[in-house]
Amino acid sequence: MPWYTVLVLAVAAERLAELVVARRNTRWSLARGGVESGREHYPAMVALHTVLLAGCLAEVHLADRPFPPVLGWVMAATVVAAQALRWWCIRTLGPRWNTRVIVVPGLPRVTGGPYRWLSHPNYVAVAAEGLALPLVHGAWVTALVFTALNAALMVVRVRCEDGALARLPALDARA
């Protein structure tokens, strides 16, 4: 079980690294006239992701969840794949990537990298990680609760982001 705590803490550290990148990118976007949308749902998103990490540890420790070897290793690989996808998104969007929805007027929509195939690949990474991280060590209640709440939040988030992106020029920006 100590290795699982280390895994969850590593994911938490990765999330903190994302926030550092997001803050830098927020400054970059706002300096170029970026317009933020969706401020009202952002605190709920931060809270949900924080509760995911706490729930993973709490459920595993308090409910004494066992490590299911086959499922656990598959889910661990899924967590790693989700991280790789997330950082591919961050790299592809460069200074335009953010945890907030900020659109810089005059910049075309990015259609390179994983955005070549998916409109919102970062949210695929979030959904995969939110299901997989708890299941690495059998925290199925956390996995189910996060997945349901995240799905509801993603309806709001994707609508918000699609509306903001619709205001971008229809140019093709291969990244």
How is the secondary structure organized here?
Blueprint: H1 2-31, E1 35-37, H2 42-62, H3 69-93, E2 101-103, H4 121-135, H5 140-165
Antiparallel strand pairs: 1-2
Helix pairs in contact: 1-2, 2-5, 3-4, 4-5
Number of strands: 2
Largest sheet: 2 strands, antiparallel
Helical/strand content category:
mainly alpha
Q: Outline the low-pLDDT stretches.
A: 171-175
Descriptive notes:
The longest helix has 30 residues, at 2-31. The model is unreliable at 171-175 (pLDDT under 50). This protein has a two-stranded antiparallel sheet. The chain is mainly alpha-helical and 175 residues long. Helix content is 67%, strand content 3%. 26% of the residues are buried. It has 5 helices and 2 strands.
Descriptors:
175 residues, mainly alpha, 67% helix, elongated
Short description:
This protein is mainly α and 175 residues long. The protein has helices at residues 2-31, 42-62, 69-93, 121-135, 140-165; strands at residues 35-37, 101-103.
